[in-house]
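User: Some background: our group keeps a shared notebook of sequences we're curious about, and every so often someone picks one and asks for a predicted structure to add to the entry. Today it's my turn. The entry only has the sequence so far, pasted here. Could you supply the structure so I can complete it?
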Amino acid sequence: MTLLLMAAGRGSRYGKLKQFDALGPNGEFLMEFSMYDAIENGFDHIVVITQKTNVGFLTDHLSTRLPNNIKLDVVAQELNDLPKGSTFNGEREKPWGTAHAVWSAREVIDDSFVVINADDYYGKSAYKKAADFIKANTTDYALAGYTLKDTLSEHGSVSRGVCKMDEANNLLSVNERTKIERISDTIKDADSGLEFTGDELASMNFWVCNPSIFTSIEEDFKAFLKDDSNIASGEIYLPFVIQEMLENNKIGVKVIPSGGEWFGITYASDKEKAMADLKKMAKEGGYKSPLWN
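Assistant: Of course. Here's the predicted structure to add to the notebook entry:
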């Protein structure tokens, strides 16, 4: 089983490359705790998608830490990595988005895999549930859902995919709400004006996929590139591709309540709490300290 970590973001709200910030008690990156939890649950292949300038550094950093039996691939997400026959005109600096990040790994993944953000902590139980799902399913997809009220930041609004499901926990839709925050006793999306109870399940980009997604991303990316309005700053997002696959009956997606704690570092102000949480978990025996031998 493979764990794919998306670590190519620019950290615009955080102020720097948060993926490589030393948050652990012994200077570990947050993504290293995700790798540790995945390996504990039988994952034996780690793939990290990052900027081209970081490939060498990250390869050296992780190869000295991960167990010898774990396969490691560090892959660059590059602007010129396009579907055959596709081109674009104009200037662009930022990556093409999370779906393109996943597509960048198409040459190194040939089995079911989990996709996560490198700058989020998902909790141990999410990997156990994902591993159990993969062992029992070869074609379906899954999404680890987190309770919305537990994923908010005290320091500003956040973007969250709010899930709709049927009674059997089959995913019906994921609606991106880009400015959700708690104001007094209310949880509200400033863009749409919608209010939430906080008990809804939210997507934190923890997806269980199989290689069929690479074909769907490529098809959507080709169409995306034909629209000149997307070239300067548009992005192709992983949840949108999965939603389209769902609507076209290409896949089924189960929502798995993660049963664990999530935290992330959207803003620089989130760092202090993340460091305290990781230190506490290490002190209580949830993680070795240092993490790797």
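Suggested note for the entry: The CA atoms of residues 10 and 49 lie 13 Å apart. The helical segments are 30-40, 55-63, 98-103, 124-136, 212-225, 238-247, 271-283.
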